[in-house]
Amino acid sequence: MATSLHNLSQYDITTIPDASNMCFGIVVAEWNEEITGALLDGAVKTLEKHGALPENIHIKTVPGSFELIYGAHQMVLHGGYDAVIILGSVIRGETPHFDYICQGVTAGIARLNTTSEIPIIYGLLTTNDLQQALDRCGGKYGNKGDECAIDAIKMAKF
Ligand code: RBF
Fold first, then answer.
1. Taking CB atoms and a 6 Å cutoff, what residues make up the pocket around ligand 1?
2. What is the value of pTM for the model shown?
């Protein structure tokens, strides 16, 4: 897990495989769009920085994080991708919905990773408040979208 001492957004560029022949699907949730839009920007910029062609990065939106499971599954079935990235942001509220959504998405994506031919990269921010999310989508803890892009390239090469 990234911390201020281990912030994967600062990585050794020489260790990342070339992504110019790779194709990526990204599913992004519309809930907390300020956060998920920044995650998406980071992911796309980082994929392109490592050689991925814009036409080989396909982005689909879903209403909320819970729908990321369905979106990723459809991309796995129909996309022909080397890896799929999911991006979402769940922020704790007053009711237990936070736990149900986070557990549901985590279990769903974990299951997909064991049943799919390709890796699905988990970019779900699960934070206690908005500031913690902002800190992780381009703030003091980097951008988890960047890190998901690096993970996708590495796992596509796995
Ligand atoms: N989706 C998110 O991506 N982030 C959230 O913080 C979030 N909070 C929700 C809170 C409640 C009470 C409900 C009912 C839904 C929330 N959703 C959130 C939407 C959820 O992921 C999903 O889109 C809907 O439940 C429809 O399946």
1. 29, 31-32, 63-67, 88-91, 93, 95, 97, 101
2. 0.94
